Automatic annotation (TrEMBL):
Its main location: membrane. Residues 55-76 are annotated as: Disordered. This is Neutral zinc metallopeptidase. It is a single-pass membrane protein. It is found in: Membrane. The chain crosses the membrane at residues 21-46. Keywords: Membrane, Transmembrane, Transmembrane helix. It comes from the Bacteria. Residues 59-76 have a biased composition (Polar residues). The keyword Transmembrane helix applies. InterPro entries: Uncharacterised_pept_Zn_put.
Length: 291
């Protein structure tokens, strides 16, 4: 993937790296139990406080912390440049899609942080992994997560990393379209935990599909190859609920799925990638057992 060739402008990156972590220590996640929670939560959640048991109170104000060398350091920082290029290109792609539909797309921001930070959805640390917060329209990312993908989950490579970002942007698209609010209402009205989880699965699979739509629109400029696509597929397989549960507990409980199985995640990503059409990403009109 030639990410340096991605067109677009305005990545909206807020660089908080070097801030020394969360005031007061933030969320403490440790031990075997913490690792299992992190493995399940680290990929593609909207609000990590739901998984980690955080409250709904407004977080204290967070002071933005720039890297010590400021913009000059960012210019030579490959992680920063990669994230900025991917984000600005998602803005271009989704801005165009919304414009064709007669709508206006509001660009999200992406917060880069080290160890921990505050978000509109509460405190977060690197164990939570990338997430989108609908309360402030920001994606949160500690780039050390990319090396965790390689070491712990067997998924890596530039296009796989871009898929992670594009998935979170997919949640922003859902927020822009009002889908996230509709799902939240349905979850509150659900009669069982399994039913509530099923709405979460539909939401996550649609975000996977939206990530594929972005990949389709970017494949020429970024020179995306079949090998690149396989990187994203391996990542999608690695973070399926069935695979994570099998690793964590030795068995699988489908009613507890919140993100979808490995096969479902691959299928919906590839649906978006092959079609390039967000209208093909309707995970809500299908019977649940047909996803």
């Amino acid at each position: 993937m030639d990410w340096k060739n991605l067109p677009g402008s305005g990545g909206n990156i807020e660089d908080r790296r070097g801030g020394g972590g969360l005031p007061g220590g933030g969320i403490a996640v440790g031990g075997v139990g913490g690792l299992i929670i992190a493995l399940i939560a680290m990929f593609f959640g909207i609000d990590p406080s739901v998984v980690l048991g955080g409250g709904s109170e407004s977080p204290p104000a967070q002071t933005q912390t720039q890297t010590p060398s400021g913009a000059s350091s960012q210019a030579s920082d490959e992680n920063y440049q990669f994230v900025n290029n991917v984000m600005r290109n998602t803005n271009l792609v989704w801005g165009s899609i919304f414009q064709k539909a007669g709508r206006t797309y509001t660009n999200p921001s992406l917060v880069l942080y080290t160890r921990g930070t505050q978000s509109g959805c509460g405190a977060a640390n690197s164990a939570v992994g990338p997430f989108y917060c609908p309360n402030d329209n920001k994606v949160y990312l500690d780039t050390s997560f990319f090396s965790q993908m390689d070491r712990q989950l067997g998924g890596g490579g530039d296009f796989a990393y871009a898929y992670v970002i594009a998935h979170e942007v997919g949640h922003h698209v859902q927020n822009e379209l009002g889908i996230a609010d509709q799902v939240e209402r349905k979850q509150r009205a659900a009669r069982t935990e399994a039913e509530a989880n099923s709405y979460s699965v539909r939401l996550e699979l649609q975000a996977d599909c939206f990530a594929g739509v972005w990949g389709n629109a970017s494949q020429t400029d970024a020179k995306i190859t079949q090998a690149d696509v396989q990187e994203a597929v391996r990542t999608a397989e690695a973070i399926g609920d069935d695979n994570l549960q099998r690793q964590a507990r030795g068995g699988v409980v489908p009613d507890s799925f919140t993100h979808g199985s490995s096969q479902q995640r691959v299928n919906w990503f590839m649906t978006g990638f092959r079609s390039g059409d967000p209208n093909q990403c309707d995970t809500f009109s299908k019977a649940y057992n047909q996803l």
